[in-house]
């Protein structure tokens, strides 16, 4: 610990200092991350009163004017969740629109300019075959959605919050650096990860368990060794977006990991994936902070997919990734909403995230998967072997 570390005033305040201020003098390699200057340079005067209330925070960007007739990615996805938000032991943070520079950390300026022009001059309309739509407000809505993730990321990185959940739409994980696609305008989670990297972090890890492959996030970090990315998703012929096979990214073994799963893979398969793949993936990368793309479309009764998670499965997964964050990066984790097209599943799933993040409450959902699960053991072992886990 160097002389600039302001440990004493924290003791005066009578609160537990955040873990990165309390690393033992002979910190082992795994603990070095908690001493990173980006995580300790802020003065106690700046943050002392905030630490007293360190807790779970969230942002909420419902984008009510980003709506298109008969489209599943619609504001009503959040209608059952919204009235329940105040019942969770979590603080709402105001989202600010992402800046042009923050968007440009992931997306080509030409794409950004084209999207702005299309929204202003030609919307409403369809911009890709998924179909992805835009309205007159979609550009501003997408800036605010990305900003909602940045706000959560900063709060957790700065120690103002223990962990966070960015409940935003339009979703982001299909949006590639040069292409909006798959109901996504900007890649919210990638922009959030780049924002904490821009503020000094060196290793950020993203796990994506939306039902669909996070092709956009993978593309954003294909050659960025500061970021590790894992996507677990349904994979079969004709299933969107068609990427995400085990061997798709041979140059980045252990850092970019794809876990393609068969239809009906559910709570048991995902638990195996968490224990046999998430765990060595996180251990080998040693992140300083984690983000999770969570899509509630891996629920067994989602209207547009065929996976098999229940709300109990979502709770189990959230607890497991939070435990990994506790072990490797002092609990710094931000969940980010992606897909999920049944409002009940979204409300129950989001509640499960808050239960896991706050350690309070219990899920009342009774929605176990009625379908038989396929045995995914051999697939999971193939993936471990390919990466050398
Ligand atoms: Zn999805």
Helix/strand layout:
Elements: H1 8-13, H2 44-51, E1 56-61, E2 90-92, H3 100-104, H4 109-121, E3 125-128, E4 132-134, H5 138-157, E5 163-168, H6 188-198, E6 204-208, H7 215-220, E7 227-234, E8 256-261, H8 267-285, E9 289-294, H9 311-329, E10 333-337, H10 343-358, H11 377-387
Parallel strand pairs: 1-2, 1-5, 5-10, 6-7, 6-9, 7-8, 9-10
Antiparallel strand pairs: 3-4
The structure holds zinc ion.
Zinc ion (ZN) binds next to loops.
Describe this structure in words.
α5 crosses α6 and α9 packs parallel to α10 (343-358). The protein is 34% helix and 13% strand. The protein is α/β, with parallel strands linked by helices. It has helices spanning 8-13, 44-51, 100-104, 109-121, 138-157, 188-198, 215-220, 267-285, 311-329, 343-358, 377-387; strands at 56-61, 90-92, 125-128, 132-134, 163-168, 204-208, 227-234, 256-261, 289-294, 333-337. It has eleven helices and ten strands. The protein is globular. The protein has an eight-stranded parallel β-sheet, with helices on both faces. It has a two-stranded antiparallel ribbon with strand order 3-4. The chain binds zinc ion. Zinc ion is lined by residues 210-212, 295, 297, 338-339.
What key attributes describe this structure?
binds zinc ion, 34% helix, 11 helices, alpha/beta, 389 residues, globular, 8-stranded parallel β-sheet, 10 strands, single chain, two-stranded antiparallel ribbon
């Amino acid at each position: 610990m160097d002389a600039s570390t302001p440990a004493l005033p924290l003791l005066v305040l009578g609160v537990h200092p955040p873990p990165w201020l309390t690393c033992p003098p002979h910190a082992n390699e795994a603990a070095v991350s908690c001493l990173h200057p980006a995580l300790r340079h802020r003065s106690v005067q700046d943050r002392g009163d905030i630490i007293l209330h360190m807790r779970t925070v969230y942002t909420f960007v419902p984008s009510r004017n980003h709506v298109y007739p008969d489209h599943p990615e619609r504001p009503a996805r959040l209608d059952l969740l919204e009235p329940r938000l105040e019942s969770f032991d979590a603080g709402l943070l105001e989202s600010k629109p992402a800046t042009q520079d923050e968007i440009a950390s992931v997306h080509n300026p030409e794409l950004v300019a084209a999207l702005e022009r299309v929204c202003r001059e030609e919307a409403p309309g369809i911009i890709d075959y998924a179909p992805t739509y835009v309205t007159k407000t979609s550009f501003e809505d997408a800036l605010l959605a990305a900003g909602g993730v940045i706000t959560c990321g900063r709060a957790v990185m700065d120690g103002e919050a223990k962990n966070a959940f960015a409940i935003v739409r339009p979703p982001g994980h299909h949006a590639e650096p040069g292409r909006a696609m798959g109901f996504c305008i900007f890649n919210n989670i990638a922009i959030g990860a780049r924002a904490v990297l821009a503020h000094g972090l060196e290793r950020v890890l993203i796990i994506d368990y939306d039902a669909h492959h996070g092709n956009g996030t993978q593309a954003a970090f294909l050659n960025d060794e500061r970021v590790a990315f894992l996507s677990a998703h349904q994979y079969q012929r004709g299933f969107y977006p068609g990427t995400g096979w085990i061997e798709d990214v041979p140059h980045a073994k252990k850092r970019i990991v794809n876990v393609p799963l068969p239809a009906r893979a559910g709570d048991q398969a995902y638990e195996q994936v968490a224990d046999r793949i998430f765990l060595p993936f996180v251990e080998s990368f040693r992140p300083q902070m984690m983000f999770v793309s969570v899509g509630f479309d891996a629920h067994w009764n989602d209207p547009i997919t065929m996976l098999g998670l229940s709300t109990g499965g979502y709770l189990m997964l959230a607890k497991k990734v939070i435990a990994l964050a506790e072990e490797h990066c002092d609990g710094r984790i931000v969940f980010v909403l992606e897909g999920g097209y049944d409002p009940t599943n979204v409300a129950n799933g989001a509640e499960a995230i808050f239960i896991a993040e706050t350690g309070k409450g219990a899920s009342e959902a009774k929605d176990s998967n009625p379908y038989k699960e396929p045995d995914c053991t051999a697939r999971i072992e193939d993936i471990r072997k390919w990466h050398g886990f």
